[in-house]
Amino acid sequence: MISYIRGELVSLEEDKVIVDVGGVGYGIFMPGQMMGLLPPVGHEVKLHTYLNVKEDALQLFGFLTRDALQVFRLLIGVSGIGPKGGQSILSVLPPDELRFAVMAGDVRAISAAPGIGKKTAEKLILELRDKLSIEDALEHAVSGGTESYGGQASAVSGVGSEAVQALVALGYGNTEALKAVKQVEITEDTDVETVLKLALKHMAF
Predict the structure, then answer these.
(1) Start-to-end C-alpha separation, the chain
(2) Pseudo-torsion of CA 202, 113, 140, 178, nearest 10°?
(3) CA 100 to chain centre
(4) Tens digit of pLDDT for each residue in 44-103?
(5) What ranges in 31-82 are assigned the alpha helix state H?
(6) Distance (Å, rounded) from C-alpha 173 to C-alpha 33?
(7) In 87-144, where do the E strands start and end?
(8) CA 54 to CA 124: how far, in whole Å?
(9) pTM of the prediction?
(10) Phi-psi region of 22 (alpha: psi -120 to 50; beta: other; left: phi over 0)
(11) Confidence bin at 146 (pLDDT 50/70/90)
(12) What secondary structure letter does DSSP report for 63?
């Protein structure tokens, strides 16, 4: 099992990158959206990886965070979605936006990924609704992608989730509402009304 690859970013191709590790160039498939976040060629990168074993090939899929890798693993656990399908979905929807699309039952957003039809998107939503949540997205934003301890992150994500739901009830789009709330600095003392006011300011621009 290859947990991660660390080395020099040598080149970017259409759907994969080449990373030099000790003189060996590894071809690693990546979602297009994440490739856009990589440092310039020649810099060091660390990619969390999944090794896909086929009869005629070994394929590495890479992600910038462990969270993205975890979501990818959940995606390929859905019947009908292979590694290429998971890569395609994450190229269109980053992990947090995918969480919101699943919770909102947004078939259209998920089926916008190349190779993912309406029926597959519906199956994905059904199977992952209990495994992905808005709270996870907000808690991940609060903790900065690191593991958090105690109840602070959970309390903050609860307030944020209520604010997102309130914005959606006001007629704002699901993804738009989530992005606005994620831009608000929320603490244990922040109430829903304050989050709403600040989020609406972000949505005004």
Answers:
(1) 46
(2) 30
(3) 10
(4) 999 999 999 988 889 999 999 999 999 999 999 998 999 999 999 999 998 888 888 888
(5) 32-35, 66-76
(6) 21
(7) none
(8) 23
(9) 0.70
(10) left
(11) very low
(12) E
